Amino acid sequence: METPARAAGRLAVREIGHVSFFVRDLDATRRFYGGVLGLKETGTGKNGRIVFFSAGVHHHDVSCELARTEGPGPQPKGVPGLYHVAFAVGASLDELAEARRWVESHGLTPFGEYDRGFCVRDPDGHEIEIYVEVGGPDMAPHTPQALAAPRPSRGASR
Prior knowledge:
By secondary structure, this protein is an alpha/beta fold. The protein has four helices and eight strands.
């Protein structure tokens, strides 16, 4: 079947399928992604070396595999590589405040706060952004519409 994207001679990505991390400790990873973020563990792979987590639509949105070797971990901001992964937690500032209280109650310190979100670090130091889509999905923090809209100062740089 020829789709408009194929007819135009290009690939058309519909969505990001999942994000995969190498991690040092699967138990700590389960506590963070399952216990703190509330993602559902949906299975394991490679004889228990990988654990899969879902936000509810796909089999998995995040996969975490036990690292095969020690490494430097996340690199300093600005170095080529993964910067952060963002999770939408609602559509209101009340839901954002509730999410902030929740992560703080689990011993995490939010940073990089801005008007619709903040970041925390997972057990391996990966930056995880928590945000709300105030104004609907077209105004999610990184859409062209949101980036063009006037915004108050974010305070701490992200």
